[in-house]
Amino acid sequence: MTLENLTKEQFIRDFKDTLHEEQLIKVPAATPAELFTTLAKVIRKYYTDSWLERNRKLSEEQQKIAYYFSIEFLPGRMLETNLLNLGILDLVKAGFADLDVDFEAVKNAEHDMALGNGGLGRLAAAFMDSLATTGYPGFGNGLRYKYGLFKQRIVDGYQVELPDSWFGSIGNVWEVRKDHDVVDIKLFGDVYLAIDENGKFSPVYKDAQVLRAVPYDVPQIGFENGNINNLRLWDVEIPEEYELNYPTLADRRAVQDITAILYPDDSNYEGKQLRLVQEYFMTSAGLQTIIKSYLKQGLPLENIHEKVSVHINDTHPAVAPAEFMRLLVDEYGLEWDAAWSTTVQTMSYTNHTILSEALEKWDAGLFKKVLPRVYQIILEIDNRFVAGLAQEGRDADLIERTRIVKNGQIHMANLAIIGGHSVNGVAKLHTELLKEDTLHDFYVLYPEKFNNKTNGIVQRRWTQIAAPELSAAIDETIGKEWRKDIHQLKKLEAFADDDAVLANFYQVKQEAKARLAKYILETTGVEVSTDAIFDVQVKRLHAYKRQLLNVLHIIKLYWDLKDNPDKDMVPRVFIFGAKAAPGYHFAKSVIKLINELANLINNDASLQSKLKVVFLENYNVSLAELIVPAANVSEQISTASKEASGTSNMKFMMTGAITLATLDGANIEIKDECGDDNIVIFGLTKDEVYDHYAKHDYYSRGVYENNPVLKRVVDTFINGTIPNSQSEGSEIYDALITQNDEYFLLADFDAYVSAQERIDSLYRDQRTWSRMSLMNIATSGKFTSDDTITEYAEEIWNLKK
Ligand code: 26W
After folding, report:
1. Domain check: are 510 and 413 in the same one?
2. Could you give the maximum distance between any two Cα atoms of the chain, in Å?
3. Block means of pLDDT (10 residues each) for the chain, length 801 residues?
4. N or C: which end of the chain has fewer CB within 10 A?
């Protein structure tokens, strides 16, 4: 079926037929979940032919394909994106209107696909969309977790984690199980080398555990272009022939654990055996199928890099070069040197963080136990690397710093860099930091491998789907071309002084705020006015992201108002959304504190509603779609140098929020695009932060004692002002004062307060503010992930459309 010819009437017939046949029910009686499932089935029928055709064409034309290996994918809901990209969103909405079905309710019946923690997983999902949209052959490779990122509930102000059983009763309606592509994975046991019949060493496995990897493909539909790529997610099963090895339920459960949960930790690495198994499982399964499908083309294996790129998304799949070597040498008989040459040309790696605590290092003993043969191969790679550098006459310390295995640990980033041809950071500043600091030694060895790829976002989700009113306003102003070519947003600049246009955009923002205000009232009972500035910080809770700096400022405003209830200020609503890693004690204390502070402030009538604080539970992609378009202020206030890029900053910009930011990550590039007048920047620069490190001259207690306003704010944590938060308050106080404020909150406090005052004064002049907002939208096109992925495709993977 070609969708250009689809009419509303045909859709209604298809929908009713499917509902009747498959659910045995008629429209008025069906639940939203039944309607959703039915709709998904109808859509699947519409795109299946294109999907088959795409797969056939790619193999027939022997095109080069990139495989994006990632332990996280965070697409959120798929329904609306799929409809939009197929070009039938409006048609389906109109059909539902005729049927008297509430499209919103049906849409909300879909559970977020939350197989990711935050930025890294969301970026991976964005890349899937953009690969299909730009037309480059690029497939995802990951794990089919039964439970996604935990569901967060707030109870008595505390975060409580509940399992996210996202399959629910509906399952994943988009996936297709591919039994013909299963592969086996070997773990544990012993490996020794024996001489085979050809006189070559070959590994003999003893007592290995053999598991089956079963792929499920999720279609990735391009925007109005008929392209459909695959996101392949692996599940684990016990092969029938080994069933006797798992006599008890507990034995079986231990296997199922491999794909049971997504590790909820971000930015803090834990060397857990199960995690290593997860990483290897998805990597080996992916590489095995890649080699098999390549060989079907009848081409020589030593040239596989000409048809295949494997991208290592952060260090989690960094075992890939070693596993690829194992397959090429052990299983397919290639000579080491030929195998190594093609491996290096196949692999590429993205680093997503400079925080050293997030760089994976495996205990060599554990690694050897789980992956005995891969361990031997890593030792061989390392020995050859060291010998090669020694032969070049390299400095012994440099060799020691860059080698893979040392002090009983395997350094996965080192393996990814040595075993690949490309290393990239995710924003200009981040890549500079990698070169001059975090990965400097490797930059000395391989300057040609380093490159930058600034992150991006799927503009379609954040405008057309999340912000329909805004999208309509843009249409009215510059026509609809921007929906296909986001750079057309630039045309809005011509209207920066057009009062009617500015008023229209202001109105659109008010509507989005009203929707969010309604949600806030329903979920928290807090009433907020759309006349207030909606000041938003939504992201994972982490000390370096400095939600606490935001809190310090809120407390300052609280005291200002207590001292002077007539203080002249634009009313503010501070909106937070954040999950903390379950084991991250400090982050959880910050959540508790925000909630108790919110209770104190929201219930104090003397503040006359000039100040409100809201913590929205269970921040996820779908909630972001509600929050982002409603923001006036986008808080991007990490300590300079710590946030690799950030991507929510881009979403806020594109929907007309003003960024309040430090010069960190992609904030710098946002400033370059929108211009100094349309952003509010404050705080220490990366050089100033590094200067403090070098001189060891930062003394937070001194700052605290010399600044009475700040002192009063900080003392608020421990003097009983905020009820029910004694232990959290003193923990926070200690971090700031006793432990010398690792992230320079106190150093940036004054600058942040001034920046906030500037926000206040800018907002008073509605015209000025609306102009700034429009200029942000107009200049946000640079941050489309369509362009980011084009750079990956052309500069790293060497793909053709
Ligand atoms: C091993 C535990 C672990 C898990 C995940 C450590 C580190 C991570 C990720 C690297 C954390 C992450 O999501 N990083 C974010 O990546 C985004 C996409 O590039 C960037 O925009 C964010 O700045 C960066 O924090």
Report:
1. no
2. 91
3. 87 97 91 97 95 87 95 98 98 98 97 97 98 97 98 98 93 96 98 88 94 98 96 98 96 97 90 96 98 96 98 98 98 97 98 91 98 98 98 98 98 98 98 97 98 98 98 98 98 98 98 98 98 98 98 98 97 98 97 98 96 98 98 99 98 98 98 98 98 98 98 98 98 98 98 98 97 98 98 97 85
4. C
- Any atom of ligand 1 within 6 Å of the Cβ of 353: yes
Q: What is the dihedral of CA 600, 603, 605, 606, to 10 degrees?
A: 0
Neighbours of 430 (CB within 10 A): 29
Q: Residue 469: how many CB atoms within 10 A of its CB?
A: 17
User: Residue 703 belongs to what domain range?
Assistant: 459-781
Q: From the CB of 596, is ligand 1 less than 6 Å away?
A: no
Contact in structure between 178 and 151 (CB atoms under 8 Å): no
Q: Is residue 10 part of a domain?
A: no
Rounded Cα–Cα distance for residues 575 and 26 (Å): 42
The alpha carbon torsion through 40, 43, 45, 48 (nearest 10 deg) reads -110
Which is nearest to 601 in space by CA: 526, 712, 690? 526
Secondary structure of 397-427 as H, E, C letters: HHHHHHCCEECCEEEHHHHHHHCCCCEEECC
Pocket test for ligand 1, best of 120, 542, 649 (most atoms within 8 A of CB): 120
Q: Contact at 8 Å (CB) between 601 and 181?
A: no
Where among 398, 424, 453 does a domain terminate?
453
Q: Quick one: 207 and 328 in the same domain?
A: yes
Determine, yes or no, domain membership for 676: yes
CATH at 520: 3.40.50.2000
Of 41, 111, 311, 539, the catalytic one is 539
- In DSSP terms, 162 is beta-bridged to 151
Q: Exposure string (b/e) for 638-665, b if CB count within 10 Å is 16 or more?
A: bbbbbbbbbbbbbbbbbbbbbbbbbbbb
Whether this prediction's pTM lies above 0.70 is answered by yes
Is there an atom of ligand 1 within 6 Å of 645 CB?
yes
**Distance in Å, CA 266 to ligand 1 centroid:** 6
In terms of Cα–Cα distance, which of 656, 366, 728 is closest to 507? 656
Instruction: Look at residues 398, 451, 392 and name the one whose alpha carbon lies nearest to residue 420.
Output: 451
